Amino acid sequence: MREAIAKLEAVSRQLEPPPDIRREITEQVVRYADRFLDALPEMPVYVPGQPDTAFGDFIGDAPVDLELLLAELAREVDTPGINPASGAHLGYIPGGGVYYAALGDYLADVSNRYSGIYFASPGAVQLEQRLVQWLARLIGYGTGAGGDLTSGGSIANLSAIVAAREAHGIAARDIPDTCVYLTSQVHHCVTKALGIAGLKECIQRVIPMDQSFRMDVAALQKAITDDRKAGLKPWMVVASAGTTDTGSVDPLDLIASVAAEQGLWLHVDGAYGGAFLLCDAGQSVLSGIEKADSVVIDPHKGFFLPYGSGAVIVKNRDTLAAAHGYHADYMQDAVEDDPSPASLSAELTRPFRGLRLWLPLKLAGLKPFRAALDEKLLLAQYFREQLAKLPDFEVGPVPELSVVIYRYKPPNGADTEDFNRRLVDAIQRDGQIFISSTRIEGRYMLRLAVLNFRTHLEHIDRLLALLPKVAGQLAT
Ligand SMILES: *Cc1c(COP(=O)(O)O)cnc(C)c1O
């Protein structure tokens, strides 16, 4: 037996590289990352195509040399598709990936602290809770607030909706009479979350919007009153603090008054826009957010982190705890009244997400984050102003945050939708700038979304030069 164990040990020890090998492969990985970052400004932002599905001999018994794997990574993963690290990414909601966050992930992965439970890692849990408290203060919440760092906005919205469901004691039999109020511009993950939370059969009232795609508060008020008269149960308003399509912010302060007066839960989806609370301009656009019962902010959007970082913050921490508390005998040593993420979310074991947020905020300080967000707001305004001066371009409302909608009006009577579809396709394939499109009230529109921390004036100017040039080529 001992002999058999020793034999296995000799092989299983290969999982721990000796120090010299460890250093060597780490250097190889760092060299790859350096080459990537050094080449980034010249790299295309979009490369059509798909990976070679073979991916070599996929997984096998024998070890493979790291250089070969890095070459495969470069070819199959880091080339085809959209390059979210690029400052030329101006489509959808752009990504980012501040380098400091990668170092945070590296450290978190090496020591592998268990951040789900206070008992297991009081330091990791404290650090995350301090970040949550910092976000809560940014929102304007008081001391009873709490929250959780999640994998992203979709899960954060789900968490908030489950907290709202439990706080209002919505049982299965209530669901067909329960009403949710939102606009057609709400992010699709909210509807998805309602379904996952077992609330698919509740009544979703789609409230009309004003010209700038913001919820019409009088219509909201009337819908709630009518539903109550009809014997239904108004439950929750979902407001957007920065819609994905147009960056519009619903009138949070007025909505909050209606929600409070009517006893409804107010949830604010600030996955995209929430980070703008860091700068003064954003604070004023988002005022009233502090009156919400729950708020979602995605650090992998406006705090420029790599993907995998969302946050749900609730005004009253107990609501999140009541919705996610648990008991398990095998956890009896870890029973705690400390704010463990495991008691505030659907997750037990989870990555230590705090380090990737904490390290960049500390290493850079807040100043460059604030400046970058202010810069994004101005770049969006600048783009709209400059585009409006070009002949044959139609622009949408003045951006409240950093999204602009626009389209080309072909002068020769060509089909507008078809033309813009070809325009977006041609610009994407060109690879210098990535833009995307959407449909607003049935109309095909192009979008500019500025959120990558690497996006600067040069990228906007590049797009402003490209748009008329490509449109001109397509028109002839
Ligand atoms: C991106 C986004 C979401 C979804 O967040 P993920 O992090 O992609 O899951 C939700 N709401 C809004 C407004 C968003 O922009």
Key descriptive features of the protein:
13% strand, Aspartate Aminotransferase, domain 2, binds pyridoxal-5'-phosphate, four-stranded antiparallel β-sheet, alpha/beta, 476 residues, seven-stranded mixed β-sheet, 44% helix, Aspartate Aminotransferase, domain 1
Architecture overview:
The protein has 476 residues and is an alpha/beta fold. The chain is 44% helix and 13% strand. Helix 6 packs across helix 12. The radius of gyration is 25 Å and the shape is globular. The chain starts with a helix and ends with a helix. Bound molecules: pyridoxal-5'-phosphate. The site of pyridoxal-5'-phosphate has 14 residues, from helix 6.
CATH topology value of the largest domain? Aspartate Aminotransferase, domain 2
Strands of the widest sheet, in order across it, are 3-9-8-7-6-4-5
Number of strands: 13
Q: How much helical structure, as a percent, in the residues?
A: 40-55%
Task: Give the name of the CATH architecture of the largest domain.
Answer: 3-Layer(aba) Sandwich
Number of domains: 2
Poorly predicted parts: none
List of distinct ligands in this structure: pyridoxal-5'-phosphate
Average pLDDT, to the nearest integer?
96
Assign the CATH class of the largest domain: Alpha Beta
Ends distance: 81 Å
Largest sheet: 7 strands, mixed
- Kindly report the name of the CATH homologous superfamily of the largest domain: Type I PLP-dependent aspartate aminotransferase-like (Major domain)
- Helix count equals 16
Which sequence of SSEs, written as H and E, runs from N to C?
Answer: HHEHEHHEHEHEHEHEHEHEHHHEEHEEH
Beta-strand content:
5-15%
Please give the radius of gyration in angstroms. Answer: 25 Å
Helix vs. strand class = alpha/beta
From the spread of the alpha carbons, the general shape counts as globular
